[in-house]
Design goal:
The complex is a heterodimer of chains A (about 280) and B (about 190). Chain A has about 280 residues and is mostly helical. Chain A is built from 14 helices and 3 strands. Chain A has a 3-stranded mixed beta sheet with strand order 1-3-2. In chain A, a hairpin with a 3-residue loop joins strand 2 and strand 3 (about 115). In chain B, a hairpin with an 8-residue loop joins strand 2 (about 55-60) and strand 3. Chain B starts with 13 loop residues before the first helix and ends in a 16-residue tail after the last helix. Chain B is an alpha+beta fold. The chains are: A mainly alpha (about 280), B alpha+beta (about 190). At the A-B interface, helix 3, helix 4, strand 1, helix 9 and helix 10 of A face strand 7, helix 2, helix 3, helix 4 and helix 5 of B.
Chain lengths: ~280, ~190
């Protein structure tokens, strides 16, 4: 029915029967491809989700390597996994890392990869704040928010057809093309759906509280980010890819009300954070 | 001058003492309230903040505390300290408590990109207002991501640092952080 309506619209715009045929065919093909793309992340195969996430994480690691500090990397992995154990996907092979970049940002990729920059760590005061940041990224993985972004990239350089091949296991990691990597980069630069960011914020407060932390760590990070200049190159990308911190705080106040106040006295563990995260 | 008489039970209010003349015999915490761990009461110097929406200013950091006054949206306040989900602020001649989520810290007005609450917390933490954003330094910029080639050896290193569940649980127990049952929030904003 929808296709017929689109075809009719095409007929109005372009009067030849040939143009109508092509338009209809193109729409049908796009729908088929979208169906394949959804298989990649919509639960068809966790293995495929892992592979895609690994490729995506490797690309981010190509932009900035890990900080060469095994103690710090172990710390963020233990904290991150502890929080992830309180999510709906505790069994994923969660991996966390600190990127050696002065920029302020954090990333998640499908399958359980979470990366934060040392620039972001430098803005934090305690473990509850880091827990809030990691919980936000964990929520993106748990809710498969990347799927939404990939579906929206139809027609962009990340081809649905390529993802379809991925879903059908016809494309190994070794064969991943520049085109796929290019598409994943595009999503990293354009950001996820804004509604998904708000959902990740809401979930992050709860995950932090469940893990025994003061749930207001993430809001305190957002309040700090707000004081930074959006035009500063070190934070420009984060501001371009997320709703404004004020809008996020406002949404959290609307959703949380006083529901989490009872957990606000849970600890923040500032001393352990300071012992592991050497501030400049 | 009206001053909310409730201050943090933790003895970390050194910064507060500098800016507030405390009334003698400040009230003890309500018996039902657990004593705040020292780390959750964050003394702050006089950072500015703005009220996001019309909100009541309370005499104490509790929802059922007496309302001092109603602050209109966009009212400017000075942050005195944080306690749990609440911030103690001064609005003109009046001091009281607001919910943390009702506040946004004042927007950056300079190019240094580091002011207000961040600086206040830095001061509280280290005694020095360092930690400025490295303006102009390139790292993980849009260009760098766009030009990145996948780094599989770094990906392997990331995998080597992965924790197993036993270590994560030991890490939590050492803090000690304990699991709490908390339901997810309803998506009332969308």
């Amino acid at each position: 029915m929808k296709r017929t309506l689109f075809a009719a619209a095409a007929l109005l715009l372009v009067s030849t029967a040939q143009a109508q045929f092509d338009f209809t065919k193109a729409l049908g093909t796009l729908a088929e491809k979208a169906g394949d793309a959804t298989k990649v992340l919509a639960g068809r195969s966790e293995d495929q989700e892992q592979k895609l996430g690994a490729q995506w994480a490797a690309t981010l690691l190509g932009a900035a390597p890990l900080v060469n500090d095994t103690g710090l990397q172990a710390y963020i992995n233990e904290l991150g996994l502890w929080i992830a154990l309180h999510s709906e996907r505790p069994g994923l092979p969660w991996r966390f890392g600190v990127l050696d970049s002065p920029n302020i940002n954090a990333f998640a990729t499908p399958g359980g990869y979470v990366l934060v920059t040392r620039g972001l760590l430098a803005q934090l005061s305690d473990e509850a704040e880091l827990a809030g940041v990691l919980a936000h990224e964990i929520a993106h993985v748990v809710k498969k928010h990347h799927l939404n972004a990939i579906l929206k990239s139809q027609g962009a350089s990340l081809g649905a057809e390529l993802l379809g091949k991925y879903a059908d296991n016809k494309l190994g990691v070794g064969e991943v093309t520049d085109k796929l990597v290019g598409g994943l980069k595009e999503i990293s630069l354009r950001g996820l759906d804004k509604g998904d960011e708000y959902q990740a914020d809401r979930m992050a407060l709860v995950l932090a509280a469940r893990s025994g932390y003061d749930p207001f760590g993430l809001p305190r990070v957002l309040q700090k980010l707000e004081t930074l200049n959006a035009r500063d190159s070190s934070i420009a990308l984060l501001f371009e890819t997320h709703p404004a911190p004020t809008a996020r705080l406002d949404a959290l106040e609307t959703a949380a009300g006083d529901k989490l106040d009872a957990f606000a006295r849970q600890p923040v563990f500032a001393e352990r954070f300071a012992a592991h995260v050497k501030q400049p | 001058m009206v001053i909310a008489r409730k201050v943090a039970s933790a003895g970390t209010a050194a910064a507060l003492l500098l800016v507030l003349a405390l009334p003698a015999g400040a009230k003890k915490p309500k018996p039902t309230e657990p004593a705040a761990p020292a780390a959750t009461a964050t003394p702050a110097t006089q950072a500015s903040a703005q009220v996001i929406r019309e909100t009541p200013l309370k005499t104490e950091p509790f929802a059922d505390a007496e309302t001092v006054s109603a602050l209109p949206a966009n009212a400017m306040v000075q942050i005195l300290m944080r306690q749990g989900a609440w911030m103690q602020v001064r609005a003109g001649e009046t001091a009281g408590w607001l919910r943390l989520l009702s506040l946004r810290t004042a927007a950056a007005s300079t190019a240094t990109g580091d002011s207000g609450l961040t600086q206040a917390i830095n001061v509280a933490r280290s005694g020095a207002s360092g930690n400025t954003v490295a303006t102009g330094v390139r790292g993980l910029s849009k260009e760098q991501i766009a030009n990145a080639a996948p780094n599989t050896s770094e990906l392997a290193r990331m995998g080597q640092s992965a924790a197993d569940e036993a270590h994560a649980r030991a890490f939590a127990a050492a803090a000690p952080a304990a699991s709490v049952d908390v339901p997810f929030l309803e998506p009332r904003d969308n």
